[in-house]
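Researcher: Here's my situation. A collaborator sent me these components and asked whether they could plausibly form a single complex. I don't have experimental data yet, so a predicted model of the whole assembly would be a useful starting point for our discussion.
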Amino acid sequence: MIEFSLDSRSGVSPYLQVVHQVRRALRLGLLVEGDQLPTVKDVVASLAINPNTVLKAYRELERDGLVAARPGVGTFVTRTLADSSLAAHEPLRRDLARWLGQARSAGLDEESIEALFMSTFRDVNEDIA
Amino acid sequence: MIWLTWRQCRTQFIAVYGLVAAACVWLAVTGPALARLARRNENVYDLLTSNDRLLFNGGIAVLAVAPAVIGIFWGAPLVARELETGTYRLAWNQSVTRGRWLAVKLGFAVLSTAVAVGILTLAITWWAQPIDGATGSQRGSLASRLTPISFAMRGIVPVGYAVFALLLGTLIGLLVRRSVPAMALTLAVYVVVQIAVPLWVRPHLVPATTTSMVISHSTLDGIGLDGSGTLTITTHAERGDWVLSNETVDAQGRAAALPSWFSSCLPPPPAAGQPNGKAAVSQDHGTLDACLARLTDEGFRQRVVYQPRDHFWPLQWAETGLYLAASVVLGGLSFWWTRRRLS
Amino acid sequence: MSAIVTARGLGKQYRRRWALQDCSLEVPVGRVTGLVGPNGAGKTTLLSLMVGILTPTVGTIEVCGGRPAADASQLAKVGFVAQDTPTYAGLTVADHLRLGAHLNPRWDDAAAHRRVERLGLDPHQKAGQLSGGQRAQLALTLGLAKRPELLILDEPVASLDPLARREFLQVLMEAVAEDEISVLLSSHVVSDLERVCDHVVVLVDSQVRVAGDVEELLATHHRLSGPRREPSTLPADQQVVWASHTDRQSTYVVRTRSPILDPAWSVSALGLEDLVLAYMEGPASVTPASTGLEVLR
């Protein structure tokens, strides 16, 4: 059973934090198929957050096909993200390392690299959306 | 609600009934001996020990103080304490309406008080009955039960007083919202009422008897000087009556001062060590009788307004009824204020 | 979604002073609603009116479909934890539970005792000897065990230390998850509200400045920062909540559903605390009519 934590200063909404933490756990193999997610009541009792927040997170995960709710029993993992583990994307990682090297040679410092990456990332995501 | 009321005033209840029980025990122990004494002797007063007299006056004191104490320490904080500490915000959110809440609290307090004071009064009345108004051969006496001080501590009026004090305290506490100021104010108002009623109200609760009597040697009780230095005459009153006024009236029935020639009828003034004393009817009957006869001829009579001793119970019922009626009014106001006006 | 509390033109006058004036709001059912505002805004007065401890001078208020404190069944529907969590200092914890059991028809005695046990409260200890946090938990237990439809809390954690505060909110949230009650809690500590509330009402000077689901509010409010500009030059669909100017720069907090396309602005999101502050400080000319009554139907 995993445990959630909440960073109230991160600016990320609580329900997204829960979603991210579940996804990360799936990716790292902390959660595997068939595992039960903590009940809403338990999450809420330890984090002191609104139950609707947890429900919303679990619903989104269900929409993504990662978990399934069994009424009266709980919410269970149906699919892992392990096959999206980083190891499977070695070529991408190498490309990224090469790009970073190029950015460095062009004279960009860390902040500029990050800013460039984030703005491009957002633009691309918006185009997709 | 009954459980809560009991739980909240458990201490008061036990204290009151504990004291009542203790008092009753003491009275039961000393009572029969006293009764035996009174039955055998005319001038039982002389035979009373200082202990008995202490108990008699003590009994009066206890009954004088008990209603006020109950009113102050039970009544005033009844609602005021909840308002003061803020616990009314807890109490009034339980599934019981304000009206019912007050009704149970007040009802319990009134019932407990009435019973406790009733028992106490009964016990003291029973104990004092043989010696009420006992006189001694040398003019010492205990207050008869009709006189204001004793009257208030006999029969059933103390119950009326106690209930009244309780409801007075509750209403004042409700209005003032603070326990301690409410206690002080309740005491003040209660004292004022207790002075005013015997003075102005009680004499008229049951119509008094008025008699007009001839002033003669046999009826004359004494001749004295009143506050402003004029001579006054008083006549005998029956033992146990409550004399309201005892004054000389002229032929037209108006209160009048004694005629100027009367002062020459008097025996020589008493010795220097007895100022303002009533001049006892002296050996010198002759001149005095002639003077009294002349007074009578000139139309002077003595008018006595009094409550005869057999008015004791009617007066008791009337006054108790009065106080209970006042209590009902106070209670009604308390309810109205709690439900409508409080906040 | 319907409203569990509806107030229209509500006002309360004390002698000469109006503690609350012309207040209209709706509290949605099934949510945890936070009532936030500066001290003296009338929060306690409003909550007391909802519970029936005060009666309105003008206006109407309807709670759980009835008039507050009208009768015993109405009182049973609403639980209340008043400010400073009043308890009877002379009564023990167990006595308080008996009090609840005797005076409430829907009292869940088993749950109450379970909760007291879990909290580690000694049943024979007098309430006056409990710590602030423990007293608050006791008051919360009393409020929850009567199984109300709506639980109202007036600044329940204001005077508690951080641990006690966290524990209180944990218990409260667990109860909401279990029992599906609606909760209305007032606070001026916005960070607590952010974790716990999904609906928020900002009350300033008896007026509702804004009310709505927290998520929706956060999504539609933005902070714009850029060269100095007058509010009138902003597009009509951007409602100005707050503005601050220096000689060269303007910063606005606006509310809008449409995207912000003007490249001159640097746009950033607001946290709930900043959003509430903006409404609390902002010009009173922000009309409540457009911001209030945001209950989604």
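Model: Some features of this prediction you could bring to your collaborator: The first helix of chain B runs from residue 2 to 8. The CA atoms of residues 168 and 189 of chain B lie 9 Å apart.
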